[in-house]
Amino acid sequence: MNKSLYTPKFSFGKWCFLFIGGIILFTIAYAFATIPELYIGNNWISGTISFICGVLLLLMYRWLVKSYEERKIEELPMQKSLKDTGIGFLWGMLMMAAVIGIFALCGWYKIIGCSFNVAFVYRYLMAYFVVAVGEEIVFRGIMFRLLDSQFNLWVALIFSSFLFGAAHIINPNATVVSTIGISLASGVLFGLLLKYYRTLWVPIGIHWSWNFVQGTVTGSPVSGMVPDYSILNSVTSGPELLTGGSFGPEASISLMILGLVLCFLVGAKLIVRK
Fold it and tell me: Can you give the pTM of this predicted structure?
C-alpha cells in the first residue's frame, strides 16, 4: 500500500488511542444502525437516516485520522468514491450470486415467490450501507491499516480478520464455523482489497453489496439474522456445512472456498506488483 496511507511509527500511547477511537466508532456505528428502527413505520425516513449516519461515520473517521495522524486521508478520496465503491459493490454482487447460484444448481436454494417494494429496498440498501461503513472503518481503516504499518501484512490480516469474525460470534445461530468463515471469506479478502486498491471505498462497496444481495435480494440470513423483507422469497435446504444453515451463506464451506480462491488471486497480484 502507498506509504502515504500509513501513519509513521509513533508512541504506544498514541497507537492505543487510535485503537480506542476505532472501538468507539464501532460502538457508534451500531448505535446508528439501530436509530432507523425508531422509524420502522416509514421506510423512506428510515433509509435516509441510515444514509446520513453512514456519512457522519465517514466524517468522524476523517477527523480522527487528520487529528491524530496528521496526514492527508488518501484512503478515502472523494473524487473516486463512486467509482471505487462501484468496483467493490460489483465484487460483492458477483460473489454472492456465484454462491447462491451453486446452491440453486445443487437444488438447495429454491425461489417460491417474488415481491418488489421500492421503499423497502431503499430502506435496507441504506441500512446495509451504514453497517458496511462502520465495520470497514474500524476493522480495515483503523485496525488493519495500523497493524500493517506498525508490523506487517500477515500480522494485519491475521489479527484484524480474527477480530472481525469474533465480532459476529454474538449473532443469532453463530458457530465456530461461521466465525472462521467470516474471518477467512470476508475479513482476509477485504483487507487484501484495501491493500491492493489503496482505498477504503472498495471494501465498503463489497461489504455493502455482500449483505444487501445476500439478505434483501436472495432472502438468505445475513450473519444469522433473517431479513423481514426480500425481493426473492426463498427456501434453503441441503447440508448445513455447505449452505451455512440458519446462519446463512457466510457460514458455508462454499463461500469460504470462493473467498480463499479470491484471496489467493488478489495476493498474487500484490506480489507481482511489488
Answer: 0.90
